[in-house]
Task: structure prediction
Amino acid sequence: MPRNGSGTFSLPQAPFVTGTTISSTAVNSDFSDIAAALTQSISKDGQTTYTGNQPMAGNKLTGLGAGTAATDSVNMSQLVSGAANYALASGTDTITITPSPGITAYAIGQRFVIKIANTNTGAVTLNVNSVGAGAVTWPNGTALSAGDLPANAMIEVDVQATTPVFHLQTGANFAATQAVGNSSTRIATTAFVANALVSTLGSAGLRSYLAGLTLSAAGGTGTFGIAVGVAVDSTNVLAMVLGSAYTKTTSAWAVGTGNGAIDTGAIANTTWYHVYLIQRPDTGVVDVIFSTSASSPTLPANYTYYRRIGSMKTNGSAQWASFIQRGDDFYIAEVNDFQPTTTSAMTLRALSVPSGVVVQPKMRTLSIGGSANGTVLRVAPASNSALYRTVVYNDIGSGINSNNQGSAFEGPPTDTSAQIYMAVTALQASGSLQVYTAGWADRRGRDD
Result:
């Protein structure tokens, strides 16, 4: 027995005595044990291999070279530098990498750090060490859009399925070539975080989130603008991002800025339209469309996600009427919507605000005093006439009946026919009352 099981070697024979004849049997036995012990030892030139696990008892292997094969050990330098799973990409939308050490099969949880060679133009696939190509998607499964992976960006992906499927864990938002504070970078970062939260937390993650996407129309033309922004779609599945400002026209919809946006049919005169951000999941492309429908636009082929971002009206020449948007607030040239000549009970009356949705009108009154009595105007939500408030009250006894009285106020919520309740319970003789609409506040699905 060359070793005792704890690594200790001892000669099995009694020590040899000087001047005595040595037994060949004893010597041969000892040499056999020595040979066996040496065979069990590890030669420093690598001729022998381990046949069991090696307990290190807290000691370290030092001076390790960098591993170059999948079965090699990895030294601390490789781990700290990330060299063990880093690779430089080749290709644009069909990316290949050859990390070293390489892999021979995909396993869920594998992670790769990649430096992008060329800015992608659409959906992306990745092939590692020629094992097989798979789609690269956001964590919620949405395909990448053009520009999500700019040249020189450092990204990280992990294997979600061995088919394979790769999920992007970092993206274009962190590219060194992009300026900190750039608006498109902020938007992309917001969308990345939003999608991560939607994916992690489910539909409640960023429910009904909307930022930016401001609409604008100078008036008198068929072109309108849409600013950069992010909106979670109407089903709260993913965050759609418009990374650059768009313009759209009243022609039939076609993908891309400067092209048409109507979903179906031809543009009509003096008609309310509703603007939507839309996205197709197979390529991740985001675009803009408008429709007479306030809830269900006719979507182009392959587009399944959408969110209403505002409403606009055409003039008598099928061009956009001028307006300004600030957040949820829309401002128009005021319109005289109501000029009563007699008193009236609570009655639903239409205003110059979008139909098909519930908004809060921005209103102004002008009451011109007469010779007797006061003027009293009450308004109430379209949903409940009992919840009225008085917005005009001119009392002849106060001495103000001879002056023109005007005030601006936030009207109550409309119904989907753009109506609120109004009642004129008193009207000054020889006087007049005018009720104007100057805009509206539109929550655009934030409360859904």
User: Anything to note?
Assistant: The domain at 331-441 is CATH 2.60.120 (Jelly Rolls). The first strand starts at residue 86 and ends at 88.
